[in-house]
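Figure 3 (text version): structure tokens given as input.
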């Protein structure tokens, strides 16, 4: 075991670009997943079968398939359908948003259902429509209640970005693996990648716990 090859020159040449892509993929997937997940949650809670059934099928279907399979299916099949390559980065972004929307949907649905019915009735008593009630009364409280869970899912999402290695996207893991091949130290490169993922996720988890404690104090 020799880690002497690990230096800032290695990080700047091979690791940083992969780290930037992993962060970008995490941010895009989180924002897109929350947006579409909220829409899916509202569809499932609408009580209208035309909206409820498709949303339920989508969410349960996505949650029943491994993410790496969804990534590979999109990357390999979509070019055949449209007649041109999509690219690993675009495939990763689209796939992650579509996949994470199903998980964020369940989080948002739980958050919406956690709001006391009295809040909804109060909005209705003021003459608010369903959309106004959701936008002004329910969703702001649901987001606050679910914020720690949403951030925890984002940490898991960051870990899952390593799966784009399967389609050749240059993420954080690919940066370490590339450096390991060039310097002839594959075992050490995987070890360093694991340490970096561990430190990042532990740091983010600590921040989430602090936020959760602060929100609990406010309540």
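Below: residues designed for each position.
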């Amino acid at each position: 075991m020799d880690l002497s090859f690990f230096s800032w020159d290695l990080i700047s040449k091979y690791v940083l670009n992969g780290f930037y892509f992993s962060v970008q993929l995490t941010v895009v997937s989180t924002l897109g997943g929350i947006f579409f997940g909220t829409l899916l949650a509202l569809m499932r809670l609408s009580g209208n079968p035309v909206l409820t059934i498709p949303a339920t099928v989508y969410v349960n279907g996505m949650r029943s398939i491994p993410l790496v399979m969804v990534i590979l299916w999109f990357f390999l099949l979509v070019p055949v359908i449209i007649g041109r390559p999509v690219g690993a980065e675009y495939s990763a972004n689209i796939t992650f948003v579509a996949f994470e929307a199903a998980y964020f949907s369940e989080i948002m649905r739980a958050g919406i259902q956690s709001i006391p019915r009295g809040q909804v009735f109060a909005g209705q008593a003021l003459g608010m429509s369903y959309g106004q009630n959701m936008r002004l009364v329910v969703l702001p409280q649901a987001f606050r209640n679910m914020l720690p869970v949403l951030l925890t899912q984002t940490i898991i999402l960051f870990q899952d970005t390593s799966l784009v290695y399967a389609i050749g996207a240059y993420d954080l893991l690919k940066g370490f693996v590339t450096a390991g091949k060039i310097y002839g130290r594959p075992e050490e490169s995987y070890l360093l990648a694991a340490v970096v993922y561990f430190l990042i996720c532990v740091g983010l988890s600590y921040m989430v716990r602090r936020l959760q404690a602060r929100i609990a104090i406010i309540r």
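The radius of gyration is 21 Å.
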